[in-house]
């Protein structure tokens, strides 16, 4: 976890509001598995009924883009390195641990969300919507976004089908 990253600190606050047990991972040093570097997790989260989640947080603004050209789609991109790292952590931790990509959307003022929207966090004068996708589901449906930048994403319809409120992964 990078404490200066407001998306990750908002997610940590969300976990506290939910009274969940978690471990925030110090990302200041590169992790290794089997003598190879691997992208660090952001959190290990302990939910109910033995739910153990390996979390990589992706912070996005909604809508994205600029004020004059807002991009009103829910961004779902990640780096291939992050996706592969999450898979490697899942394999290392083993049965009972599940890798989750958590998208924390910083909801801008002009966006109206329905009252009672699940996993909407009000924190530090901002709104954050917390959504997740199982790492295995993401890997199955991802496509290359940019070979130059090493990024992948999901087709819009696939994203809508797979994304859930983060709380759904806790029970």
What can you tell me about this protein's structure?
With 171 residues, the protein is an alpha+beta fold. The protein has one domain: Trna Endonuclease, Chain: A, domain 1. Helix content is 23%, strand content 37%. It has 4 helices and 14 strands. The strands form 4 sheets. Strands 1, 4, 5, 9, 10, 11 and 14 form a 7-stranded mixed β-sheet that branches. The protein has a 3-stranded antiparallel β-sheet with strand order 8-13-12. A two-stranded antiparallel sheet has the order 2-3. β10 and β11 form a beta hairpin. The longest helix has 14 residues. The two termini are 24 Å apart. The model has no long low-confidence stretch (mean pLDDT 93).
How would you describe this structure in keywords?
171 residues; alpha+beta; Trna Endonuclease, Chain: A, domain 1; seven-stranded mixed sheet; three-stranded antiparallel sheet; 4 helices; 14 strands; globular
Short description:
This protein has 171 residues and is of the alpha+beta class.
Strand content: 35-45%
Distance between the termini: 24 Å
Low-confidence runs (pLDDT<50, min 5 residues)?
A: none
Structural class: alpha+beta
Helix content: 10-25%
Total count of helical runs of at least 4 residues: 4
Shape: globular
CATH topology: Trna Endonuclease, Chain: A, domain 1
Largest sheet features: 7 strands, mixed
Mean pLDDT: 93
* DSSP E strands, number: 14
InterPro entries: HYExAFE
Protein name: HYExAFE family protein
Organism: Telmatocola sphagniphila
């Amino acid at each position: 976890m990078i404490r200066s990253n407001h998306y990750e600190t908002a997610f940590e606050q969300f976990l506290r509001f939910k009274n969940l047990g978690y471990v925030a991972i110090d990302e200041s040093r590169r992790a290794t598995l089997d003598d190879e570097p691997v992208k660090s997790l952001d959190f290990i989260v302990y939910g109910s009924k033995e739910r153990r989640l390996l979390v990589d947080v992706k912070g996005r603004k909604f809508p994205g883009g600029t004020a004059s050209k807002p991009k009103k789609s829910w961004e779902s991109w990640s780096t291939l390195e992050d996706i592969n790292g999450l898979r490697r952590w899942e394999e290392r931790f083993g049965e009972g641990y599940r890798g989750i990509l958590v998208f924390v959307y910083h909801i801008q003022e002009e966006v109206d969300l329905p009252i009672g929207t699940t996993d909407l966090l009000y924190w530090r004068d901002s709104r954050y919507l917390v959504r997740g996708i199982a790492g295995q589901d993401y890997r199955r449906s991802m496509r290359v976004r940019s070979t130059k930048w090493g990024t992948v994403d999901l087709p819009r319809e696939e994203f809508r089908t797979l994304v859930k409120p983060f709380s759904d992964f806790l029970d």
